[in-house]
Write a structure and sequence with these properties.
Blueprint (H helix, E strand, L loop, with lengths): L1 H24 L17 E2 L2 H20 L1 H12 L3 H21 L10 H15 L10 E3 L4 E3 L5 E3 L14 H11 L13
Antiparallel strand pairs: 1-2, 2-3, 3-4
Helix pairs in contact: 1-2, 1-3, 1-4, 2-5, 3-4
The structure holds zinc ion (ZN).
Length: about 190
Amino acid sequence: MWDIILNFSLGLVFAHLSIRVPLLTFPRMKSWNTQFPPHPEPILVDGQLLRRVLDMRNFHWLGILFAIIPLGFGWMSLKYGNAPLGFGMWISSGWAIVSRLTSAIDVDGPPWSKDLAMRLQIVRNEADSEKSCCAFPVPLWEVMSVRCNACGKVLLAESRPDLGRPRSDGWIKGFFRLLLTDGRPIVSPSSEEE
Ligand SMILES: [Zn+2]
């Protein structure tokens, strides 16, 4: 009985990890982050940040491709005897694929969206225009919102999702936090600051 539960859980965990390999590894390489200040410092809203938001979105979708790995291993486990392990992998990866596909039409979809990139672009445009908050706007994305570093005005009430920078809370803690939150910001923007 226990080994069935253990194998099933192993299958679940293995599949859960495989799907998140792109998000957990690729953007965190050192050479990918030299243009950004270290986590969790505020990050300047510029072209590089916009590209990073779209990259994170792509890595999120790449997870579907990585779900093929546990699906394949799961199929072999089912075929060659270890059914609980196989079921665990199938349930976990199947669920991940379905939830990613439905997130495309869901308003609460992945934390990195084209829509978010567009709203950040509007912040950039406004900072460059006559409507800017002050003479020398410096829009910085803090944990809770995009705020001008020069005058302190909140330019976009949007909490910051994980942006792929190596985590300041250490490799292991950061890893588990990302597994639990899937990169979503833990705090939601407070309406008082608007
Ligand atoms: Zn300003």
